[in-house]
Design a protein that fits this description.
single chain; alpha+beta; 4 helices
C-alpha cells in the first residue's frame, strides 16, 4: 500500500499546483461561453436606445442609466423563462438587485430598452428615441 499512498500524495500535490496555476492565469475571467453571458456581452457591445416613456418610468422608479449598465455588467441575470428568444426581435428579460427587472429587444445593429418593471402608471408615446449613455 505504500506505493498507492505515494502516488496519491503526488497526485494531490500536482492537482494543487494545477489549481493555483489556473487561478493565477485566468483570474476573474468569466465564463463567456454561457448563454446568459453571451447575451450580456452582445447587449453591452451594441448601442442601447429607449423611448421617452421608458425615461419617465425610470425617473419615477429612481432607476438610472448606471443601474441598467450594472445589470448588464455583473449584478443582473437573464431570465430565459420570461424571455422571447424565438421571435424577431428577440426579447430578453434581466432581473437584478432591488427587484429591478428590465426587458431588451435585440435588433440588428442596436438594442432597445422596451420595459422597466415599475408601479408607476405613465402613458406616453415613444416619439423621442434616446441613447442610453
Amino acid at each position: 500500500m505504500k506505493t498507492f499512498k505515494e502516488r496519491l500524495k503526488y497526485y494531490v500535490i500536482g492537482l494543487g499546483m494545477g489549481v493555483i496555476a489556473v487561478a493565477f492565469l485566468f483570474g476573474e475571467r468569466s465564463c463567456a461561453w454561457l448563454p446568459g453571458n453571451q447575451v450580456k456581452n452582445t447587449l453591452a457591445m451594441s448601442e442601447i436606445v429607449y423611448g421617452d416613456s421608458i425615461k419617465a418610468i425610470m425617473k419615477c422608479s429612481n432607476v438610472s442609466n448606471s443601474d441598467i449598465y450594472k445589470l448588464l455588467d455583473k449584478s443582473g441575470d437573464v431570465d430565459f423563462s420570461k424571455s422571447s428568444t424565438h421571435e424577431e426581435p428577440k426579447k430578453y428579460v434581466f432581473s437584478g438587485a432591488k427587484d429591478l427587472e428590465v426587458t431588451f429587444a435585440m435588433n440588428e445593429g442596436y438594442s432597445e430598452l422596451i420595459q422597466v418593471k415599475s408601479n408607476c402608471k405613465i402613458s406616453m408615446s415613444n416619439n423621442f428615441i434616446l441613447v442610453l449613455v
